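Structure first, sequence second, as always.
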């Protein structure tokens, strides 16, 4: 089978490397060899062993009937979207690592693939090298999925881990992650939670079988998390992780959000550190399942793309019914979710105890030595009620001419 790779960056070059390195293994699994005929990129790679396969004109791929497999590792929406659409329309299977593309246009691209009797695969778009898309449409097919909670972004997990263990500065760790090839071209997508948002949108659509608009998912990144938060977390035996979560209730309601969350040592995702991702999937029959591995980086992500290519070769003449339809899945407002809340408050607990109780009810208190602040952990509250409590507390403190809330982090403790 002849393949074309669109985008010879970190992932695309990884795909070519694996197809060469594991040539026999791939051929055995697929039933025949997969040969890369074209590599589409804006750049030339004159010193590379694949220099002769580099092309700059997409039409060469689109119009070559010999090309039955296309890898899209360009990232972004333009021109990834028109190119992928054209490949599917031309009856070519497509495997992509591009979560932005799948989250924004997956509904349409899946429909075209069905109509053209080819496959649009995207295992690498979530969790890098971790098998998660395929388990959802194969191994867990008989389950009603109740919850998916994931640490879905390697870059932010790497940053949070370094902040926690080494007290490292945010910017320096981000640069390290970029140098290691983990980060998005625009790292804002990582640190502001947008990358996780697209991934949890894809997983939620897989679990519900319906289209999920990622814009409707409440999204908060890690830029407000500080070393002081981690000092408290350490004292409390907790950690702070960026979660993408969705809950599918039996009555059809679905809640989904992306936010930094404080978790205790007993949470299955607590030990997931560094660039690793972890995804907890709860099924109504199987209970908890955990998927763990390298969530970013060249070869892990490319490995998932290669697995998609193998499945496409194995199913060259039929569409595997995966994904979701254009029926829309509503997402519940964030205000309706329940958490405990970790707050850092200015001043001393002794002076503020009454106001805290008035606003938040009974709380657990935590103090660090020598700080003009203290922390509390509320009981479980609906987000809407918590916001109202925060406003009430701020008003009480403002009236006394004092500072109020320094930090709030949702907690699952
Ligand atoms: N920037 C992403 C991450 C790459 O750090 O997880 C993998 O999607």
């Amino acid at each position: 089978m002849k393949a074309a790779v669109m985008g010879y960056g970190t992932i695309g070059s990884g795909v070519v490397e694996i197809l060469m390195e594991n040539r026999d293994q791939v051929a055995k699994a697929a039933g025949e060899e997969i040969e890369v005929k074209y590599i589409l990129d804006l750049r030339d790679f004159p010193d590379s062993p694949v220099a002769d396969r580099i092309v700059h004109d997409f039409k060469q791929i689109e119009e070559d009937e010999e090309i039955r497999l296309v890898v899209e590792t360009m990232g972004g929406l333009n021109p990834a979207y028109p190119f992928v659409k054209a490949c599917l329309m031309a009856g070519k299977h497509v495997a992509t690592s591009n979560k932005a593309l799948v989250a924004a246009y997956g509904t349409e691209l899946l429909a075209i693939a069905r109509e053209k009797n080819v496959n649009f695969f995207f295992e690498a778009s979530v969790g890098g090298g971790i098998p998660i898309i395929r388990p959802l449409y194969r191994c867990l097919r008989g389950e009603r999925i109740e919850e998916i909670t994931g640490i879905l972004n390697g870059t932010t997990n790497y940053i949070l881990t370094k902040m926690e263990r080494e007290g490292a500065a945010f910017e320096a760790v981000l640069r390290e992650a970029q140098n290691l090839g983990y980060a998005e071209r625009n790292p804002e997508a990582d640190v502001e939670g947008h990358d996780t948002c697209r991934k949890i949108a894809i997983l939620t659509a897989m679990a519900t079988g319906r289209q999920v608009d990622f814009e409707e998912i409440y999204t908060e990144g890690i830029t407000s998390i500080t070393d002081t938060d981690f000092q408290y977390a350490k004292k409390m035996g907790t950690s702070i992780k960026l979660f993408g979560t969705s809950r599918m209730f039996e009555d059809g309601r679905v809640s989904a959000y992306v936010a930094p969350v404080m978790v205790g040592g007993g949470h299955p995702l607590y030990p997931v550190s560094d660039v690793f991702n972890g995804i907890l999937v709860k099924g109504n029959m199987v209970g908890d399942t955990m998927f763990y591995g390298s969530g970013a980086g060249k070869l892990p992500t490319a490995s998932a793309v290669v697995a998609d290519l193998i499945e496409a070769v194995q199913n060259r003449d039929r569409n595997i019914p995966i994904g979701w339809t254009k029926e829309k899945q509503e997402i519940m407002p964030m205000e309706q979710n329940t958490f405990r809340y970790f707050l850092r408050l200015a001043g001393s607990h002794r002076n503020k105890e009454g106001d805290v109780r008035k606003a938040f009810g009974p709380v657990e208190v935590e103090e660090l030595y020598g700080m003009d602040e203290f922390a509390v952990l509320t009981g479980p509250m609906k987000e809407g009620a918590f916001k109202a409590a925060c406003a009430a507390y701020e008003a009480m403190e403002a009236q006394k001419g004092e500072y109020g809330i320094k930090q709030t982090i949702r907690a699952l403790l």
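Margin note: The domain at 334-412 is CATH 3.30.70.1710 (Alpha-Beta Plaits).
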